[in-house]
Specification:
With about 425 residues, this protein is an alpha/beta fold. It has 13 helices and 19 strands. Strands 2, 4, 5, 7, 8 and 9 form a 6-stranded mixed β-sheet that branches. It is elongated. The chain starts with a helix and ends with a helix. The N terminus is likely disordered. This is DUF58 domain-containing protein.
């Protein structure tokens, strides 16, 4: 009965439309009137848009470079079937270039009183929070000639986390860690090692490791083995000031620093050490303190996802003061910053005695591999000038690194693809030498 009544209404409207309007339009015939009537009927039979109930679900986090799935659940409470074209609108950075058109548009048919789902696959192109804007629905009639359109605000947020490309280096570094933590005995001894066990002397062992008292009670010569201490404190300090905004390749230096910090954190956590995080420029941007071993990597990646370089100089005095408050006892302080001469000489170097007096300090800087390319340039006047400028820049960085080393700082200067494994190797070397 409802369909019959609706058909009668459409017929009456069509007759009124044709009877009243068409005679006044010269040159419009019966065929045109029939088309207009069909369009009007299609519009009336299209399911309403405002009454639709749309709910989101799915992923809330995704690694940069991976794909997140966000589901739209569309419920049609009306008595007419919904034939819909749906556009799920997000910020352009939520999609890889060229994929938004295919990933955000859906064709959906929802029978009266039922529910159907559509999935949008996001591929963020930058770190941080990506917010949904609105869902636009175009409801078409059975002939597809006309329809209704409206939008629904359905909030959702997907956080793009750092990609952690350097995790591929973790298995090899964990194997070296197992050689240090007692499963394969080590003979080095320092302030960061503790006695592990005695074993029989083997050719090639350091004679300083011989335990003469234990050997006197045995028929063989015994040597002491040492293992690195656990539960040491590491503070990772990210300089998010102006120097971190410089692009190396297609990404800012900060991204490479984040990757190196994640590899060091994963390795140190497996070694039984405690790791905290500080991000600072003119003020403290974020800090992660006291996370449990199972929660530390998720906590770090969530905090790092929202970090962006600031376009002003870092307040080194405030950074060092905050770091000392976060590390009241002897710690390994890893400072990921630049090696530009002016900021280091004017800001950091006068404050180094405050850090090195109590702590082991490592400074890691992301180098630009393009400098090596420029330094090798020859053949034209422009190439020679470029080579001279690049060589001068490299010499300045080496001079700055040498001055820091004389203050007791371990300095790393490596390109983006090598800074993370180089920092992990430095950590393992400090553990093996008993300096941590």
């Amino acid at each position: 009965m409802a369909l019959t009544g609706r058909t009668a209404l459409i017929a009456a409207l069509g007759a009124l439309f044709v009877g009243l309007l068409l005679p006044s339009w010269a040159g419009i015939g019966t065929v045109t009137g029939a088309v207009l009537l069909a369009v009007l009927a299609d519009l009336v039979l299209a399911a309403p848009v405002r009454s639709l109930r749309i709910v989101r679900g799915g992923d809330t986090t995704v690694r940069l470079g991976d794909t997140a799935s966000v589901e739209l659940s569309v419920t049609n409470p009306s008595g007419r079937p919904l034939r819909a074209l749906i556009r799920d609108a997000w910020a352009p950075s939520a999609w890889r270039p060229g994929t938004a058109e295919t990933s955000s548009r859906h064709t959906l048919t929802v029978p009266a009183g039922e529910r159907r789902r559509a999935v949008s696959r996001l591929a963020p192109s930058r770190r941080g929070d990506h917010h949904a804007h609105r869902v636009t629905v175009r409801s078409l009639g059975p002939l597809g000639l006309a329809g209704r359109q409206g939008s629904h605000h359905v909030p959702w947020t997907v956080r793009a986390l750092p990609p952690f490309h350097s995790r591929k280096h973790l298995p090899s570094r964990l194997a070296r860690l197992r050689e240090l933590d007692g499963r394969t005995s080590v003979l080095t001894r320092g302030q960061g090692t503790e006695f592990d066990s005695l074993r029989e002397y083997l050719p090639g062992d350091d004679v300083r490791s011989i335990d003469w008292r234990a050997s006197a009670r045995r028929t063989t010569v015994a040597v002491r083995t040492w293992r690195p201490e656990r539960d040491r404190h590491i503070l990772v300090v990210l300089d998010t000031g102006r120097t971190s905004a410089g692009r190396v390749g297609d990404a800012p230096r900060l991204d490479a620093a984040l990757d190196a910090a994640l590899l060091l954190t994963a390795l140190a956590t497996r070694a039984g050490d405690r790791v905290d995080l500080l991000a600072h420029d003119s003020r403290k941007r974020t800090a992660v303190i006291g996370s449990s071993p199972s929660e530390i990597l998720p906590a770090f990646t969530n905090a790092m996802a929202l970090l962006e370089p600031a376009l002003h100089e870092t307040d080194m005095r405030s950074l060092v003061s905050t770091a000392l408050r976060m590390a009241p006892h002897r710690s390994l302080i890893v400072l990921l910053t630049g090696l530009d001469a002016a900021p280091v000489e004017d800001g950091l170097r006068p404050l180094l005695p405050l850090l090195t007096k109590r702590h082991e300090v490592v400074l890691a800087s992301v180098a630009d591999p393009h400098l090596d390319v420029l330094a090798a340039g020859r053949g034209t006047l422009e190439a020679v000038y470029g080579a001279a400028a690049a060589e001068q820049t490299r010499a300045d960085r080496r001079h700055t690194a040498d001055r820091l080393t004389r203050h007791g700082v371990t300095v790393l200067d490596a390109p983006p693809g090598q800074i993370a494994p180089a920092l992990a190797d430095t950590y393992l070397a400090l553990k093996a030498a008993g300096r941590l």
